Amino acid sequence: MPWEKVDIDQWADELGVNINELRQKEQLIEKIVKSRKRFDLTQGQLAEIVGVSQPRIAQIENRTKIGKISFDVLFNILGVLGHDFKITTRKVRDLEYADA
Question: Which CATH architecture best describes the domain 8-80?
Fold first, then answer.
């Protein structure tokens, strides 16, 4: 069966996850993959360093069940790979309240 091109909104809806959460996880996973390759590590080597199985690293990198991958896990892997991070917030829109 050939792969279909699915846009991120449709993907988030099918997974039952928030679109913003999905976008953030995508960015973090991309950093993990690039860093692992930059350090010339195999998935198995990274798994051993992190303390998880190689199949778990493969699931993360392949975005398998991305809705169930926690930010804690992603931040832990990034930390092992030498990344420092900070969380910032910014207002993107005002909430709209319905008149009661």
Answer: Orthogonal Bundle (1.10)
